Amino acid sequence: MIPLLRSLGYTPIYTAKAEVVDGQTYAISHRADVGENKPPIHIVGCRLEIDKRPPSGTPRLSPHALVQEYLNKTEHLWAIATNGFRWRLLRDSSLMTRLTYIEFDLEQILKGENFAEFGLFYRLFHRSRLPEGVDDADKCLLEYYHQEALQQGGRVRDRLRDGVEKALTQLGTGFLQHSVNQHLRQKLVNGSLKDIDYYRQLLRLIYRLLFLMVAESRKLLFVTDDLEKARIYREYYSIERLRELAERPHWRREGFQDLWQGLRVTFLLFDENWRGEILGLSPLNGDLFGSTTLPDLDDCVIDNYDLLVALRHLSLYQDKAQLRRVNYEYLDVEELGSVYESLLDFHPQTIQRQGIYEFALVVGSDRKTTGSYYTPPQLVQQLIKAALEPVIEDKLTQVRSQTSTLSESEELKHNLEKALLSLKICDPACGSGHFLLAAARRIGKELAKIRTGEAEPGIEPLKLAVRDVIQNCIYGVDLNPLAVDLCKVALWIEGFPGKLPLTFLDHRIKCGNSLVGVLDLDCLKEGIPDEAFKAVTGDNKQLSTQFKNRNKKERKNQGQLSMFGDLDGDRAIYAESWRELGLTRESTPQEIKEKANQYKAIRDKDKNQGWWRDHSACNLWTAAFFMPLTEQNLQLLPTTEVLHRLLHESLSPLPTPYSPLPIIEAANKLVEEKHFFHWCLEFPEVFEQGGFDCVLGNPPWERIKLQEKEFFASRSVEIANAANKAAREKLIQELPRKNPELASSKSVTPKLKHL
């Protein structure tokens, strides 16, 4: 290794003494040249793995973890770690929760005589690419490459966003215009299929394609090492095969639709029946590949031309004058968030001109009405550091103080792992899941560190840990159903280690208005508040006075009775059902299916009358504030007496001149329009223990207020005076390099707390 390094321009200097940083020793073996400020190079024996500790248990860290932790704690920016066969180039990544490095398998390159890859290795690892020392670390060629890659990633994100929009339009129009799909057009004409529902199914089709492209690129789809089965899938079923067809320069409309039929077969390999087991494929299952996910598209056809054009939009993007291929293997899942943000600018519309149908995305106002925005990754990381990390540290400190055994004991390890998986983290406006992804990675990394004993755990234990965190700790709510779908896809991609089915997320990621609904069932004890009948624009003031007086009288009469009686026992039962649901294993498609059925049973009126009764009661309580006070609604307006009868009909029936059932049905129907969300019923196991451990929220960065300008004015005049959001985000991305002090948590955290 020393001769090879010399041929790359280094003068390797052996470091005889370990360096001490913050009370920890770092035995980095070499420096690139003479001097302590020269880039570190850590060389270990060829029989040792870079990201695993030796079987002896010493040293305390794997070679990769040792170098990474050293970079994070010192002023060094770049370093090399190698065992001779594998060479890794590492960069300081103190805010990252995933392993970040470039690796070359030199043994494989030389045995395979792969000259092109060796050329890349030579150019990246040459001494001229690394910094001379600590002082010029941000000016070296590697750092230039790194910053350029970040900017190119931004361009990919923008182009992918455009590609998804074009693919949606192409697919939507292609399905509508095919001569065989008369039944689809008829559904849209008679209203049995609404534009938004058609749009949502098209999006799910796009999500399937994106998921498979990512999984295929990352080689996660197979549970077997059988090369012949992998070849069969690749040549006859894979999305990669379709991408290659779509990227060819010349093809035309020929009237065939065999590619769509083949794609449907590919989807069937991953549905709940798991036909792909024959080919050794992972049992994806779940919502995304369920047989009922695309009910109106499954029996339709689309021309090969339209399908290939749509895939081309997803596969290639224009970078200046050159067509480039989207590399889904290294695409950050957060990039899907920008897709979600762009889709909020539109609403779907089916257009008919002279008997010809078209699907279009028309500029709308969903972004403003839902308050949805995409948060830059730098701010997400700062928020995680400020809000979530203290919660994690407090939880672990509490467990360590309660465990009297030695620090290396299995008991402590088990307790720490259990404590982390007991955390409950929520984003009440989760959007595409940007915050939830970051939270899952951060807790997952801590969990993997406990399980492996490594400061920088390897990829496999990290993936499994993130999957466990998503399954146990992550909760999200959003008003937009498209956001809920995309959030699930993002979590599925991030928590998919291969060889396991996609996790069940319906009970954790939900659609609803997190600001409208019942937070605590105790509010039902007082009946419906009189304020619910206060007249607003469009209400009949006479009816308002009448119902306010009537409700006040009913509340006074009911006040002498117990509003709950034996109901608390029922509620304890269905809260326990939710806990059992969370503990259900998810290692096979059958277990996922059983979990989905179990979840439906908990919310089913016939199988769980207690939950349905309380859900309807909360709908009545909330609907009283939203139901218009008009003559048309006279027989549908809920009052305290109806609420009491719903909760106690079997205990103490009260005579009334009208049946409460139509009122209850009207309130339950209003939920479909207003999306009431009753936290105590949707997440009963969380609220039984007192609520969430941490709630993550999106800082309002669309407009800079006076206080925010004042905050940045003394630290970064450029950000304070930025012309718009895009310019502000670009400057924020450059914070770590231009102004480390401002980018540190000590400076930004108070501002985030204020926001």
How much strand content do the residues show?
Answer: 5-15%
Terminal Cα separation, in Å? 52 Å
Q: Helix/strand/pairing class, anyone?
A: alpha/beta
Mean pLDDT: 84
Strand order of the largest sheet: 1-4-5-6-7-8
* Overall shape: globular
Stretches where pLDDT is under 50 for at least 5 consecutive residues are: 650-655, 740-755
Overall radius of gyration? 29 Å
Helix content: 40-55%
* Count of strand segments: 16
Total DSSP helices:
33
Largest sheet: 6 strands, mixed
What does this structure look like?
This protein has 755 residues and is α/β, with parallel strands linked by helices. Among the domains are: 2-135, no CATH class; 146-370, no CATH class; 521-676, no CATH class. Helix content is 51%, strand content 9%. The chain contains 33 helices and 16 strands. The chain has a six-stranded mixed beta sheet with strand order 1-4-5-6-7-8, with helices on both faces. Helix 2 (63-73) links the parallel strand 5 (40-43) and strand 6. Helix 23 runs antiparallel to helix 24. The longest helix has 37 residues, at 141-177. The protein is globular. Residues 650-655 and 740-755 have low confidence and may be disordered.
